[in-house]
Protein 1
Amino acid sequence: MYRLLIVTLLLGVMTGCSKPYPPLNTVNKVDLQKYLGTWYEIARYEHSFEKGCRDVTATYSLKDNGDIKVINRCTKEDGKRTEAVGVAYATDPSGSKLKVSFFRPFYGNYWVLILDKDYRYAVIGDPSREYLWILSRTPVLNKNITEKILKKLPDMGYSLEPIVWTPQGG
């Protein structure tokens, strides 16, 4: 009985100490037709499914049923090229909040947080702040644009410390 009480108290303390995030805003509108094509990963929060990846790209194309086909490619540390094929769909009329899956029936959030008016770069995340990607239409993103993005991230609840810069072109 005491163990249950202690566990309950510990869970309450841990939950109470977790950092509350402000609501995560997305861009007002994403024209999914303009968003289609290949994006280069400039930076990310590291996760097991991308551990050690370089030359990372994501290619989006429209399927006949209106869903989006997603092909993520990367080169692993041993030089082996890998590919993961998934599907995404918009969850709201703005097109800025999507669900994506590489292992159905499990879907994750893919929220467009920052998007260049000409669709040259984008920042993708999710409300938990556990996932973050900085994407560009080119393998290298202009330093001034990168700095502008990095200045905005803390106000969105994202720490800069976990960011891993993705080597491209090697």
Note: The domain at 26-165 is CATH 2.40.128.20 (Lipocalin).
Protein 2
Amino acid sequence: MTSVDIVIPVYNEERDLPRSVAALGQFLRDNLTGRTWRIVIADNGSTDGTLAIAQALSVKMPGVTCIHLPEKGRGRALRRAWLESDADIVSYMDVDLSTDLKAFPALVEAIEQGADVAVGSRLMRGSKVLRRPLKREITSRGYNMLIKLLFWTRFSDAQCGFKALSRRAAQAILPVTKDLAWFLDSEILIIAEKNGLRIADVPVTWVDDPDTRVKVLKTAWGDIKGLLRLRFGGVPRVALPTAKPSGVPPPPLSL
């Protein structure tokens, strides 16, 4: 039976956290049949009541646990949660649940069928994006085009907060990553593809959150610096254990 960890990195999310965890838990009970799962709330340096709420939820709700990091950084939170995990598949999603949860079983199935990384994509055929401001749409598409120009990658959407990795891929990639903030998503994907790992794109339905914590210009500058670091400093090499998941052959790479 496949085990799955779903990490929710949070910073000052006391308002949305209870609703999101309740909705996610109900969805997993109804739709992730035949697997065991655990929701991991990863608080990174919150200054409001987020940590207390996370701790209360971990006591009240079966299948929910939490970890606390005193310093900010979504990448820092994901690295710790994933490296400490003993689950077969590690994943994460944003607390606002902007990505429709209906796509989550497809992420899990892609890993079970042989992919090393599964990525929710808002930019491929079959995806839907609702209520997204034009500025953010242009920024996102421009950023993904920049990645393709610099690295000749084939994955379609680096920044969607909806990803899953096999544990062996996470254990191989994360120790050589350096970013502790928002660029970690892109760094993982670039390292994975350039090392020959299988990446499966999964189309998603995505609704923009007007209350997002993302600072677009600051995040964009951090992403550009990260891309330049990998482009001119070199993409690290990683080696995976030889064992592959049993079952049907890996899914074709979606472009």
Note: Residues 88 and 202 are 19 Å apart (CA to CA).
Protein 3
Amino acid sequence: MKTTSVRLLCCLIAAFLMRSTAAAAESDIRIAREWGELHGTLAVPEGGSATTAVVIIAGSGPTDRNGNSSLGLQPRSYAMLSDALCRAGFAVLRYDKRAIGRSAYPPERIADLTFDDYIDDAVACVEFLRSEGYERIVPVGHSEGALIAGCVAARCDVDGAVLLSGAGYRLDIILNRQLASQLMEVDMGLMVRATAILNRLASGRMADDIPPELQLLFGRHIQPFLISCMRYDPVETIRGIETPILIVTGGADIQITPDNAHRLHEAAPESRLVVLDAMSHVLKDCASTDRMEQLSTVYADSTLPLSAGLADAVIEFLTTI
């Protein structure tokens, strides 16, 4: 009993020390854009001697710089990844994409928002870090952010790209697969209508008569953005990247299944592919692939740790590029 108590005390002390080092200097930053300001957090390791900086690019929807969403999802995955990378000696910029979090965007312009705008903002973050004097900069994108990271790496001078849970197919194909997994058994008629809408958007045309059940996904205010996303094929994007690439996928990911990562890896055979068998889409381990169970556990619990091996894979990549 005494030995167990001593071990427990040592673990608590170690955890406290790890948390202390994670609390390296964090500062709020603002990056001027023609429409306003991007707001973000720059985390700098103790002593401020980092020469490599990463930009964490969030996934789709109202996902903020920490990985949380106004839709009720609270995994805090990006903040945790930032802490881990900072402890390893890397500076980390995570930011709220325009119209999300504190990056306020003129409401009258939201309907005109495009995927290219998100790419331009990510490039602005890279340029900000260059102006801060960092020698190496690597975009780290999650989900939709993985495609943005790939586009950034294809367009500007960065030293690598990390794609976490990134799609290997165009958005219309991804959405069709995701909707099929939820609708095929419960409402085939709604699935048929969703497919017709996706086909129309993929052809570059707006869609009318959106069913109430699909308004959140296909409302007319969001259609221009979806159309702009569907112009990008992740496979073609990754083929244009000349810098080192790390692709990470999770075996428990119910949104972007591992075949997407394998497709990306085939398109860029010199990339590094890491498969974490238990990792879910929110970068945390889950024993179940049941959608409702994941939504009520890993998607909603900010106290659960990152998937085992995720931070190590990214750190090893950043160390060796």
Note: The radius of gyration is 20 Å.
Protein 4
Amino acid sequence: MTILIRKAIITQPGSSFNGQQKDILVAGGVIVSIEDNITEKADTIIEREGLQVSPGWVDIFAHFCDPGYEYKETLQTGANAAAAGGYTHVFVLPNTNPVVHSKSQVEYIKEKSKSLPVNIHPVGAISKNAEGKDLAEMYDMFASGAIAFSDGINTVQSAGVLLKALQYVSAFEGVLIQIPQDKSIGTHGLMNEGVISTRLGLPGKPVIAEEMMVARDIELAEYAASKLHFTGISSKRSVDHIKNAKEKGLQVTCSVTPYHLFFSDEDLMDYDTNLKVNPPLRTPENRQALREAVNNGWIDCIASHHFPQEWDSKTCEFEYAGYGMIGLETAFGVAGAVGVNTERWVELCSINPRKVFGLPAATLQEGQAADLTLFDPETTYRFEEKHIQSKSKNSPFTGKELKGRVIGIINGEKVFLNT
């Protein structure tokens, strides 16, 4: 199969093609030509006004719920949502049933996802059953294809367990991913503790529960001389801790979610259960600090935190609602809406994730395998439920105006184009 991409602006910081408008010919899943004007015939021609192309995007924290919770999401529906959102690679969480804590579960996901349009990378659990007690067999999972290790939605609370895990994975350059939250603080909190939680009469989660965990885990990572990635950070002080760690030369990286850049706790005034997330939405001041950190380079990646929930888990009282929202299909449009420029987005979602987690670099170059995302960063549109490919529909962005639309992906010989 041959695909001709016409008059596309290449967005790849550091490339000699960056910012240039080119024709790109893909044949048999390989980029065979990048020229000003390609006249060869092709099976599929892609040509649209405002078209840009970059190396394929990578999402590092998504829940596809398979096996065990297929009523929320499956590998197939999750992959379709990822492709619609412009992703060619997705890291999936271990919080399934059974938990991905052994090589057999890693191999199940790898095998079942071979035919899907995106490359799915299992994240192995740090501890058995993601309970934070006994270490799982991380080396066996690594050898079977686990891309990184995390207890996913469960923060490792024990400093001793996390330290052992950091020491264990350093032997093979593994990376641990942690949502920073001390669960002994604000144990029953439902949203950010502050003026808004008081007005709404909802128990709060103090931001210090995150900041203390970030500070603790940085100390552990320094002691173990190991790699640690924080995801879902939501506070200015967390950013400051991570900035200081980087300046000391520690192997500490971080990611932020699109929804922490878009919403604040003030958006919860109507008790929208789709905005019940963990870590919770913080104050407008913290949101602004995150936006600045994204633009000045202290944030390494943007992670969707795609957490599907079935209808029953969200159509109920706020107290009983499940945590999380779907986010793969809206991530790019949300980032554009809050002012993240295109080159910075490509760094956050294409270049940096590959560096942090050891994936081969993707480049637009003749002779390289096609791993491409096609998009238009300037189009504004209203996101509607009809755009959702995910099995679940729990998105607070339905009805919101977003900026930046994904046209599709080319992943080897697999092509996915949005209609």
Note: Residues 2-52+366-417 form a domain with the Urease, subunit C; domain 1 fold (CATH 2.30.40.10).
